[in-house]
Design a protein that fits this description.
The chain has nine helices and three strands; from the N terminus they run ααααααααββαβ. The chain is mainly alpha-helical.
């Protein structure tokens, strides 16, 4: 068999979508968050403000988490044609999302612990300064959320809800925005009604909400990293298409996600007429989400 004929059967294992837009947006948010962190820490040190210092270091944790998301995009892009990754680098996005979800959960736990402590050991709050810091933080996070783009990729027009990495970055800035909103509400209540306990209560509410977000993201990314089939409907449709003539039986089917809503599939088929694997692959061509198919045929 000639080399030109063999080349027809060879293919790349780069199954991930083009995330260059998400990568650039994430980098922009990293730079914006890092700049805000440096400004708050510098101002807090210069003016002796614990509120500014605390929020500055809090922004530092999000800068780190968002940097993880950016590095995941960078590494996946750099190694997308590396043959040592058997099914491409699509799962690096899920790994970045999983790591960020853990960091988000750690932030939520720290918020809960500090809030409980403040119930029993109330601290003196400089309301005007703290409200200003919270408002600035809210503006920065709303701008960051706008940059990340929410549910749509402005360059491709595609939804990127299956991109766990950008979802994790988006959740980080939304969590921070929620924290700022709750803080503003609590500080206003303390400033005008003397309800100092609202500060601790809002901290606990924020910790609970952020924990639920992070746990949901951990479940989604964990399933992908463990090759769990979370698309049983797709597996059932594959069986129906191949077995519709009554002569073919799918005896073994492995289906797993290799990138954002892109799947690899390994099939073992018993057929009364032993066709070539290409025949069965052609039948499955209607499933655009199947990017890699391996067929074993038995008579």
């Amino acid at each position: 068999m000639s080399q030109s004929t063999l080349s027809e059967y060879k293919h790349q294992h780069d199954f991930q979508a083009d995330h260059s837009g998400n990568e650039k947006r994430t980098l922009s948010v990293v730079i914006l968050t890092a700049a805000m962190m440096v400004a708050e820490i510098a101002a807090g040190t210069l003016f002796g403000s614990m509120a500014l210092l605390a929020d500055g270091w809090h922004m530092g944790t999000h800068t780190f988490a968002l940097s993880v998301a950016f590095l995941a995009y960078w590494y996946a892009r750099r190694h997308r044609n590396d043959p040592s990754f058997s099914f491409g680098t699509g799962k690096i996005s899920a790994l970045g999302g999983y790591t960020s979800a853990i960091l988000l959960l750690v932030v939520a736990i720290a918020m809960a612990i500090e809030s409980f402590e403040r119930f029993f050991q109330p601290q003196t709050i400089r309301f005007e300064e703290a409200i200003l810091v919270a408002v600035i933080g809210l503006v920065v996070n709303l701008v960051s959320a706008r940059i990340l783009g929410g549910e749509h990729d402005h360059h491709t027009g595609h939804q990127h809800e299956h991109d766990h990495n950008i979802r994790a970055a988006y959740l980080h800035v939304i969590a921070d925005a929620l924290t700022s909103i709750l803080a503003i509400a609590a500080l206003l209540a303390g400033r005008f009604f003397g309800w100092v306990w609202m500060d601790a209560l809002m901290g606990i509410v924020g910790a609970v909400v952020i924990s639920r977000w992070s746990i949901g993201l951990l479940k989604d990314t964990g399933q992908m990293l463990l090759d769990r089939n979370d698309a049983p409907h797709l597996a059932e449709e594959i069986r129906k298409v191949l077995e519709k003539d009554g002569k073919c039986s799918v005896t073994d089917l492995h289906l797993w996600e290799v990138s954002g809503h892109r799947f690899a599939c390994i099939l073992s088929i018993v057929d009364q007429v032993q066709h070539s694997p290409a025949v069965y692959k052609k039948q499955l061509a209607q499933f655009k989400e199947l990017v890699h198919i391996t067929v074993e045929v038995n008579r």
